[in-house]
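If you are new to this repository, start here. Below is one unmodified record pulled from the training split, so you can see the exact layout before writing a loader.
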Amino acid sequence: MNLHLRTALLASAVALGTALGAAAAQTDITIGMQLEPPNLDPTSGAAAAIDEVVYANIFEGLTRYRADGSIAPALAKSWDISPDGLVYTFHLHDGVKFHDGTTMDANDVKFSLDRARAEGSTNAQKALFKGISSVDVVDPLTVKVTLKQPNGGFITNMAWGDAVIVAPESIKTDATKPVGTGPFVFSNWVKGDSITITKNPNYWGTPVKLDKATFKFISDPTAAFAAMMAGDIDAFPGYPAPETLPQFEADPRFKVVVGNTEGETILSTNNKDEHFKNKLVREALAHAINRKEIIDGAMFGYGTPIGTHFAPSNPAYVDLTSLSNYDPELSKKLLAKAGYPNGFTTTLKLPPPSYARRGGEIVAAQLRKVGIKTEISNLEWSQWLKQVFKQKDYGLTIVSHTEPMDINIYARPNYYFQYDNPAFQKLMKDLDAASNPIKRAAILGAAQTMIAEDYVNGFLFQLARTSVINAKIKGMWKNSPTQANDLTGVYWTD
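And here is the target side for that same chain:
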């Protein structure tokens, strides 16, 4: 054989092998999740697990969160704001279709926003839309939103999962068969096990690199460890067994990524409860808690102590942990002053995440030392949502609030911890009306201080985002600026 020909054939074979290798890069992924969503419509459910499946993957809003926490255009390619800050004119992308083939246009935006702010709305974040005065269709690709007063956070509000755009044709079945405009299409839901989504071949924007993604629900930390080690799970954001992270760090098959979340983990207190309606009792509760012991014992050191409901990563954060420092003797004195020298008994209802179950045992032991005895109930997620979140049937609970910049929930008297303070409600109105960053930071500081001094809840720690990921996977979020497993930029390397 001619040497040149032989060399050429070898080169071709190498090139073919390289091409085949590139073509063989994996295009499906299995993501571990601690909680199964109760439904898949983010506009009518409070559970973070809903957004963890559908945000940016199936549903899209006018704007969206980037991985770094900044806000980017989404279905709206641009917008204009009137000089008085009251009118937002959104210009929509052309050619966008819902997964059922219907066109997404300004009428769908109007439908979605009007539905979210309607009197009978079941949107868990209805307050995001209360400042809207009217939504008007200018033409199919232009929609005008008029506010009652200026709101410096309105564009950010539109990036929440609760503000995604839905269609009247499919909204009735979105809870079980979601129809959005995103780069993935809902495929299958095996209740109690997994949800599968597949690549949208008709996506209006940049196509995703994955063909299929499966969200596998594993709440038990031991089972999560076994599934990762066996390769049954490719990535587990919010990995529930931090004590095993050193084993993954030592294994070249994996990478461990530790980032921030917006998850304020709180010992939530029913402010209308017969005991906790007394501020002295709430203050006693706060001083009975040893945050370090909880972070070390439940989270193996992963987590940042907080003294108010605000993310330490935010520039406007105020460190107020000293207001609720661990002081069991002071706690006993406060209980006696409140009329409970011998303590009392209350309920501690815990949802499935390991931070709640493990943290709950530690908190119960700490409270017992000052005379507060707790009757622990371990609830499934659907039970917690019904009993605690909706029916407000609880004394204490532990939960992470993973929504971004959600201190405004303390301005809702009917929210599940039932804090009703007109002064705080006014602060939130002032915040909505402020656009100057310095003024907003000052208001946020005052708000943080007010709820800390009122001891509304027991403020424990900011949840870390501990992820275990196959070393060949790129594009997973390190931090969690919103509750999402955004797969739009995820891909495998060889």
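Two things worth knowing about this chain: Residues 28-33+177-259+465-492 form a domain with the D-Maltodextrin-Binding Protein; domain 2 fold (CATH 3.40.190.10). The chain has three domains: 28-33+177-259+465-492, 60-168, 263-463.
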